[in-house]
Each structure stands twice: as structure tokens, then as C-alpha cells.
Amino acid sequence: MxxxxxxxxxxRLYQIDEDAYELLSHYTDTLRDYFRKQExxxxxxxxxxxxxxxxxxxLKAQGVEAINIEQVQDIIHQIGEVEEIxxxxxxxxxxxxxxxxxxxxxKKPQNNKKFFRDSQNKLLAGVLAGCxxxxxxxxxxxxxxxVILSVLWFCIIGFWPLTFTVPFAAYPVxxxxxxxxxxxxxLFSALPVCAYLLVVIFAPLTKxxxxxxxxxxxxxxxxxxxxxxQEATLAKERKKNGKSGWDIFVGIISVGLSTFFTIAFIVALxxxxxxxxxxxxxxxxxxxxxxxxxxxxxxxxxxxxxVLLLTSIGILLYCSIHAAVSSFGKTKSMSATxxxxxxxxxxxxxxALVGCWVWGAxxxxxxxxxxxxxxxxxxxxxxxTDALGNVFSKEEWDFFQQNGWEMVTxxxxxxxxxxxxxxxxxKNVRYLDDCNDYTPLVYTARKHEDDLEPGIxxxxxxxxxxxxxxFIYLYGVNIDEQTGDSTVFTDQxxxxxxxxxxxxxxxxxxxxxxxxxxxxxxxxxxxLGAVTVPLSSKVVVQxxxxxxxxxxxDYVNSMxxxxxxxxxxxxxxxxxxxxxxxxxxxxxxxxxNTIFYGVTTDENITGKPATTGWFSATxxxxxxxxxxTNTSK
Length: 633
Description:
Layout: E1 4-9, E2 12-17, H1 18-35, H2 41-61, H3 69-79, H4 82-86, H5 91-98, H6 100-103, H7 127-135, H8 139-168, H9 178-189, H10 191-202, H11 209-216, H12 222-241, H13 245-278, H14 292-327, H15 336-376, E3 380-385, E4 391-393, H16 394-403, E5 406-411, E6 417-419, E7 430-436, E8 442-450, E9 455-465, E10 471-479, E11 486-495, H17 505-511, E12 525-528, E13 531-534, H18 550-557, H19 561-573, E14 579-588, E15 593-600, H20 603-606, E16 613-626
Helix pairs in contact: 1-2, 1-3, 1-12, 7-8, 8-9, 9-15, 11-12, 13-14, 14-15
């Protein structure tokens, strides 16, 4: 049912259909715009309106209650002749009018055309419809050609600079120019779209029938203006009553895109929600996160990327659903302004998404680079020197002082500690370490514990190495209270397993690998200076895969589930070569004693020549595991 409205025309009221009123308004506005440029034009326009009012009176006299669009079209046809509009009535005008059909030849020279964006046939901004009017061809053909060429441009010509630029944007050296490079790459990939936007900005849009005539290259006169108004009205009616092949194609494509973007939005939302939920737990329970600061570096950029990704997909989803619904006539199409606004919002969110990705990648690379530099470059401080003249870095000095370590020997060493591949993958754990691939290194670090209770003790440590003759060691000293003389009551060494940067008996025990052989080296005693002490049978372990060792299994089982997961996931699931080794059956009979222990490569202590390579040692523990019945005072 059509809506009727009441209008005031020349001081008289008339009932008229909404569509008829729209046509009448367009017609009168067009003629007023035309005649306003001529002398006495306002009076001519008033005469036209007066004539329309008279014809409306005739219709009312015939019993018409509400004037419809067909009656308005008929009235326009009646008063649309040049003679009646101009009101000249002279012989010259009559002659021109009578001979109009014979003398008037089609005049549509191409050079008289002016480029406009076609408002009557536009889908987005009327650029391609305007090209069809100016250059020839159908608007649908121009649209098909533009879509195909844009896709080919992006795939063949425009995509390669984007693929070249984005991977390099994560490197810190590109930090300043990364975002501009990515943006320029995107603009180059979307050059056809950019050209389209430039035409939208600089090309005028047809707003009046006069603009439409100029676009088509027709002469601007009252008769053509009337014809153009009628043609525009008929085209509008045809558009309402039927859908073109392009509309059907757009509808089908929009339905497919709506389905795709719906799935993409749901998947992106699920990942985003999962990340938000896991962010509080991932470092402690879920994933193998090697570095808390890595997560902190990317946390905010990832959140921003997630929001912007959902925004970008959401805009595409809304627009595709709206296009699908409007293509099948269920709702009105978006206005040009709405389409431009949505497009600009999508471009802004997409550019911001790429920018946040580059920002996050740069932050992560910067953090990792700084951490690597901190591990690799040993910045010594001359003021931090021990009694033997060993010069430390600030981090090494703090580590030694806080943990009670002291350097005994240091030859051909380039560092005393390191932070890197701890068994859980945590790169912030500092431990005893040295490396020299060219000259045999001599390194001894120790700590001590005094006044131990009599009993049986065990010394354990977590270690790794990539070459032989790297040891943990201990020796115990009894001190005579009366004479002050000291006597070594135990002296033992245990070789660090040579596993390199993979595996290790801790990792193998957690993996549940098959049993491995334990090879021991028998020795009855070891002479250190003037003192000879007995040794246990298990002194040097040449094969570290002690997965059947009950002490090792007890140590592994004492770990939390989180620690176990992190060890199994470290180094891409290959482990970092750490092994748990121990020296047990250390008998302490005298309460006045001191036990020294640590890590060494010194031939004077181990009886083995120093070698090149590296070692790492940490988590030393001296614990009482039994009691003795007889003690010496």
C-alpha cells in the first residue's frame, strides 16, 4: 500500500502518492535550476507550477482523490514542450518547434561529454557506471572488468612487495621504517582500489538532470530535461521491479562471502577468547613458555591485533550480509556515504592490524636480541675482582656472592657463568658455565658447608657438557680443635655426562626411554697431596642415561607437573642435555668438619687433562641421607 501525502501547490492542497510527489519534486526542481540562469526564469518556473496546479484541479474535478505517478507523468508530458515551457508564442519559436523533429540531428559528440560519477546506476560510488556513460559499454561489463583486473593485479603484480616487506619488518634494524614499508606495500597491492578512490574524490557526482545530460553529451534544454526526468523515473521503477544479472551475481557472491566471514569470525573469536583465558595460566600450567618477558613483550600487541582482526572481519561480515540481503530485495542498499565510511573503517583497521603485528614482532625481536646480547657479551667490571685477581661482570659477581661460590682456578676461560638453555627452557636461570673451543680450559669453582652433623651424605647436581673431563667434585676436611691441624677424610670426583645440547638422563627419564647401561670406572683410592683416601666404586659415570637409577627417578618424581612438561618441551621437545648426577655414601664422623664441593676441570683435582669444549653446572645439593653409629670426637 502506497503512502499518500498532502502538498501545497500555488496555495492549493492536493493529495498525492509518495512516488508521484518524488517525481513531481524532481521535475520542478530541475526546471527551476535551469530557468534560474535565464532572465525572467523565476516567473517561467512559477508559470509552470501554476499550470501543474490547474491540471491537478482538473483531476480533482474528475473525482480523483489522490494523484498517482502515472497522472504526474502524463502532466509532465503535456507541459514538457518547449513552446509551453518558454511561453514565447512567437513565430520564430513556433517555427523552431514545428521543425524540431526534422532539423534536430543527434548530437552526441564524445568531446562534448563531461565525466561524472553516475548517481542513477551506481552500486558504490558510480565510478564504473560513469565510465560506461563516458567511454561506452554497459556498467556491468565495466564492473566485471574492474573486479577481474583488480584480482589479477593483486595476485601477479601487487602481492610480491608485500610478501617481501612483511618478513623483514620484524627485525629491529627495520624498526623505524617497517610500518611505512608495509603500508606502502599494501597501497601498491591495492593500486586499482586507490585509483578508484581518487576518482571518487575528484570526479563530481550527478545531482541534477542537467548534470546527467552533460554526462551523456546531450544538449541541455527544457525538452531534454523533461525527457531525462521521465527516463530517470522509469529507470527507478524498473530497478524496483526487477534485478539485473549483476545484482543476482552480487547476491550469490555475498552469500558465499557471508558464510566464509562468519566462520572466520567465529574461529578468530575462539582463538582470541582462548588466548585471553590462557594468558593467566600459560606460563605456569599450559604451554612451554621459555621466557616470561617474551610473553610480556607481545601481550599488548597480540590483544590489539585480536581486537583489530575481529573488527576487520566483522566489518566485512556485516557488509557482505547487508549486500546479500539487499541484492534479493529484502532491504534497501547502502547509500554511497555508508559504503565509503565502512570501507575507510575497514582500511583503517587493516592498516592498524598490520602495524600492531609489526610492533609486536619488533618488540619480541628487541627483547630476544637484548637477552642474547646479555648472554653473549660479558661486560666485566674492574672493580669486581676477587682475592685471586679474577675479574667478574656485575651479574657474575652477584651470582657468586649470593650463592656462596668462589673461584679457585681460572685459565683460558671467557666467562664464569651463563644464562641460556636451562633444563626447563627458562633462559633467565644463571648457572656455572664456561666455554673454550680452541684451548683447554682450567676452571674450578667451589662452595663449602661447615659443622655438618655426623651421618651419611649425598652430593647431587644438575649438569651438562659437550666434551670429556668435566667433573663435579668434593673433599671433606676435619679440623683438630686442639692443634688446628686439618685432615682430608673424603675426596671424590664424578664426570659430567657428555650429552651436548640434547637429551640428558632427566629428559630420558621423563620420556620413559628404555634402560641404558651404566659404565663405572673402578678406583680404590685417590692421592691428594700427602693424604690418600678411599673412593666409592661409582666414581666416573661414562654413560649418563641412568633411567633405571632409583635416585634419579626419585629426583624426577619430586618435580611438579609444570616442571616436567617444560623439560619435555624444551629445545623443541629434544631436551637441553641436562643430567642429574650424584656422589653418595659420603661418611661424616666428626662434627668439626668442612666439606668443599663444586665443578672443576683441573687436572690436579681430577687426574685427567683439561680439554676444550663447554660445561654447565647448577642445582648443587649436599643432603644427609643416613646416620652413623660410631663417631670420632
